[in-house]
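testing teh design pipeline on a random one, pls ignore if ur not involved
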């Protein structure tokens, strides 16, 4: 069997992105006729028409739709492999990085990260965005450069690297009745609870952990972030259940206790699009996040 022409991968990638022979030709600086011939070769190689006429335009076939992301990833990986290794002069870099994180990450890790960035690269600016969902679109389109959170393993194209582990803990105000007694699963569940959910869901991992005990929390209020949950716990008898490490600086005047039930450990990761894998400044930023996390771990 003859080996396929791998040069066609770049042509296939652009054709599937554009869905238009003329625009694809312009991007690759080819004539429309040359691009048409390349499409014919691709059709023969893949055994699929790939783009078919629909009115005045072309539409992708089902097979072409399956190939879009796969081909794009292969081309990006090949370009990264062939790109020479580079270094970056941090002293002259002028760039803004957008990070999508939880409010807890900014409170607990932000000051040290900002300090490190300013010291090494004074021309670099950090823009923090609230993490409201797990949608990878903003990483794909470059709106977000780096995300800190729990990785969605179903999104295979996004790079993910574990940064630290976390666990759920309970938090109440000083003087709360739970501070004066042994906290059992029943006592924990019987109080009014604050649930943190970006999507407004009333049940989660903690509720599943209570189920084997035949217990159910009474969710009094649902909020979208850790800071809001802890503010409400500070001003009421409600119980907040939050990640320990990511809320360290948010709960300094509150009383924390280990949950009396086993709950899943949380793996917090850095996530980024593969096109930034070998970008020198982005690699340096990922190193900063990694080191800040490790230093805070060592200090605890």
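output:
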């Amino acid at each position: 069997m003859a080996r396929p022409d791998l040069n066609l991968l770049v042509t296939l990638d652009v054709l599937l992105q554009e869905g238009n022979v003329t625009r694809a030709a312009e991007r690759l600086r080819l004539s429309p006729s040359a691009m048409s011939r390349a499409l014919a070769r691709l059709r023969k190689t893949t055994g699929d028409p790939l783009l078919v006429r629909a009115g005045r335009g072309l539409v992708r076939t089902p097979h072409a739709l399956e190939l879009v992301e796969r081909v794009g990833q292969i081309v990006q990986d090949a370009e990264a492999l062939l790109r020479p290794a580079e270094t970056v002069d941090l002293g002259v870099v002028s760039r803004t990085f957008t990070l999508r994180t939880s409010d807890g990450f900014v409170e607990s890790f932000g000051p040290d990260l900002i300090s490190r960035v300013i010291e090494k690269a004074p021309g670099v600016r950090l823009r923090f965005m609230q993490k409201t969902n797990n949608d990878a679109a903003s990483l794909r389109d470059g709106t977000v450069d780096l995300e800190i959170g729990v990785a969605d393993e179903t999104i295979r194209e996004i790079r993910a690297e574990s940064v630290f582990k976390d666990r759920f803990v309970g938090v109440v105000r000083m003087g709360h009745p739970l501070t004066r007694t042994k906290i059992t699963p029943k006592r924990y569940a019987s109080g009014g609870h604050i649930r943190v959910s970006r999507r407004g869901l009333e049940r989660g991992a903690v509720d599943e952990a209570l189920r084997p005990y035949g217990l159910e929390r009474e969710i009094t209020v649902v909020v979208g972030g850790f800071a809001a949950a802890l503010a409400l716990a500070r001003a009421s008898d409600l119980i907040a259940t939050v990640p320990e490490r990511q809320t360290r600086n948010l709960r300094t005047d509150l009383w924390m206790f280990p949950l009396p039930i086993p709950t899943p450990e949380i793996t917090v990761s850095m996530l980024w699009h593969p096109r930034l894998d070998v970008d020198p400044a982005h690699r340096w930023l990922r190193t900063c996040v990694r080191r800040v996390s490790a230093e805070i771990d060592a200090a605890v």
